[in-house]
Write a structure and sequence with these properties.
Elements (H helix, E strand, L loop, with lengths): L2 H10 L3 H17 L12 E5 L1 H4 L3 H12 L16 E6 L2 E10 L17 E7 L5
Parallel strand pairs: 1-4
Antiparallel strand pairs: 2-3, 3-4
Helix pairs in contact: 2-4
Length: about 130
C-alpha cells in the first residue's frame, strides 16, 4: 500500500470526535436553544418525537428535552463509536431514549460523509424503549 492510498483511505474515514462535537451542538441547540459556539455552523436537522412521548403532555416533553440537552453520560457501552448519538435517561419515572441519525441532505439515505456539515442532516428522535 502506498502513502497515497493510505491518505486516501484515511480521508474517507469519518472523524468520530468531529461527529460527536457536531451532535452535541445539534442536541443542545435543538433541545435547549443553546446557540452554537462562535465561528461554527449549526448542523442542519430535525427533531422527531414519537406519539407515545407526545401523549404524556407538554410538561413531560419539556422535561425530556431538558434531560436530553444536558445529557453527558456517553460511555463505551452506550456510545461505542464515540459519536454521542444515543442516550438513555429517566424522566419523571419513565425511561426515555434519544437517538441522532445522520442522513444525506435530502433525508433519503445515510450520509456518506457524516462529519461533513455540508453533506449531512441530523434527525434527533425522542422515544420510549418500547417505541423502538
Amino acid at each position: 500500500m502506498t502513502d497515497t492510498t493510505r491518505s486516501t483511505e484515511a480521508a474517507r474515514t469519518p472523524d468520530a470526535a468531529r461527529i460527536a462535537a457536531q451532535n452535541d451542538i445539534f442536541r443542545r441547540g435543538v433541545c435547549l436553544g443553546v446557540p452554537c459556539p462562535a465561528g461554527t455552523v449549526f448542523p442542519a436537522g430535525k427533531l422527531v418525537v414519537t406519539a407515545a412521548v407526545l401523549a404524556r403532555g407538554n410538561a413531560f416533553l419539556a422535561a425530556c428535552l431538558e434531560a436530553i440537552g444536558t445529557f453527558e453520560v456517553f460511555a463505551p457501552e452506550n456510545d461505542p463509536d464515540g459519536h454521542h448519538d444515543f442516550g438513555a435517561m429517566d424522566v419523571q419515572g419513565r425511561t426515555v431514549w434519544f437517538r441522532i441519525d445522520l442522513y444525506d441532505r435530502a433525508y433519503e439515505y445515510g450520509s456518506e460523509a457524516p462529519d461533513d456539515l455540508a453533506a449531512t442532516a441530523r434527525v434527533l428522535t425522542v422515544l420510549f424503549p418500547e417505541d423502538w
